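Quick one:
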Amino acid sequence: MPESPAAIGYGFSCFSVEKKFISRKNSVFLVKVGGPGATERYLVCKKYSRPERMAGEAEMLRLLKEKGVSVPQIYGTGRDYILTEYLEGTLLLDRYCLLESSGSDGGSPGEPASRLLRDLCRWFKGFYQASREIAGRQLIMGDVNFRNFIVREKIYGIDLEECREGEIEEDVGSLCAYALTYTPSFTLWKMALVREMLRLFAAELGLDQEFLKREVKKELLVLAGRRGTLAEMKKLLAGNLLEKRL
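Output:
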């Protein structure tokens, strides 16, 4: 386990850990930094369980920021950590759950949810364009867990650790799989929202819809395997019930 950032200080004369965030891969903290005559500010300290990933993510965040993509500003790096801007806002997952709880169970997710989808699609479109310019090939985010986005006046992507070469349909298929399976899973509202997500992203990003639907199925099995529900998911997919509804 990485040591606590409070034990290091990272060169700040005033440094304190305020909070530990939920992360399944790393140790992520909200820290307060400052010094004599300096204004206190909050940063996010990410300590990597796999330190070899630090340099790649730091460089990608820096280059995307230069291209105008909404990602956090970098303030410092070390052998196994990165210090970034703290973006106060709402996790995409929390906003998503709130929209469902206040929405209807009918055939439409509602305008607030549709607006959120448009904002999310706009972020991905900017990310894919910028990352192609940076790398000279198609890169994808790789981990599109809804905890990896912050909703403010616009959407910010905050975790590029698993950014890699790939097909956009992989990201969007995974995004749909997450959207369908957050508790409670496969509700009428979630199904309606994912139908809209598939149409919107396919149109805006020029995606192959059949390939995209295959990726949704594949990612549903990946998530089910991780969560211990693989048998149930295989049964659901075998009946083609999901495909008929999407």
